């Protein structure tokens, strides 16, 4: 019996020398706000001047974080790779409350199963996730995201790094132009 190989497409856009890394927890409202600015960052900075890397920062206080992060990584293994993963992440950002608990511990999602979360994501995105979600060793990619964040001292989301350095003064509430100036050193 042979095991089918898979590849998680890196969640990276742009080709520029300046690296803007966004450590995001998909169901976190501040991370969702930051995620929704990444395309504008690429456009304003120039895809030839900046590389944007989306790092998934699962947070245990967001109860379905692990399921959602696994779905996004699973999506990156499918046709379209990172663009398919981006589509799933955009769905989470757009319907964030449907993938989160009220005050992190209550509300209607208390009775929702992981399978129902996956089905909800499939319904909104049109991406068939169940088979990819079940890839036995998909956790190696999830672990990579966790280890990378830990080695860089990342504990909260969103957190931003520019050219390998954590930027404590960069916020999801900043205008994109501020990110551009910081990333390009203007």
Automatic annotation (TrEMBL):
Superkingdom in the source lineage: Bacteria
InterPro entries reported for this sequence: Thioredoxin-like_sf (IPR036249)
The protein's name in its UniProt record: Thioredoxin
Species of origin: Rhizobium leguminosarum
